[in-house]
Predict the structure.
Amino acid sequence: AQSVTQPDIHITVSEGASLELRCNYSYGATPYLFWYVQSPGQGLQLLLKYFSGDTLVQGIKGFEAEFKRSQSSFNLRKPSVHWSDAAEYFCAVGAGGGGFKTIFGAGTRLFVKA
Amino acid sequence: GAVVSQHPSWVICKSGTSVKIECRSLDFQATTMFWYRQFPKQSLMLMATSNEGSKATYEQGVEKDKFLINHASLTLSTLTVTSAHPEDSSFYICSAPPTGNTEAFFGQGTRLTVV
């Protein structure tokens, strides 16, 4: 069965420091992979997605993610974190026919220290 | 990009009443829509797949008689929480993939509070 694992429940980084959020997936075929961000009480915002091609994907707000098939990973990175990046981050895989049924990881809460 | 709109954004209802949540694709047609539920401080869990013109497909553990889904047109799916109880209080969010697209787009969500 398809699944997504985000091993870190929460992470705290200092403003200006680099960030890496881990994500591992389990999926039989070539996955459609996504990272979403959710601010408290808000909906989801798509940061980036991977379907095929270049394994390093650029997204909005300075985020990037790298797809590594050998490790079944799709880690999210940002070179310099801003206080406004504090939020919940969800890694997800598109499953089912067409990849539209989205399976979410448990999420990682990012705290940013001043 | 494609826009998916949910209404209402938030709703408070009394225990025992029913609440309807709408999910609309504003600029595209969607034969399939998906409904998710998110409890506080938890992830989003797929509840059901809504299919235009046919019965919805529910995930294991989701009560189909409690969560009624109707997908009467190619741009509208509704989720009705029947006989709501406080434990149904949650954030409900839908998604819809445009035909021929490679991803589904999410609505802004509906915060349901049952008192």
The interface with chain B takes residues 32, 34, 41-44, 46, 49, 51, 90, 94, 96, 98-107 of chain A (CB under 8 Å). DSSP finds no helices and twelve strands in chain A. Chain A has a mean pLDDT of 92.
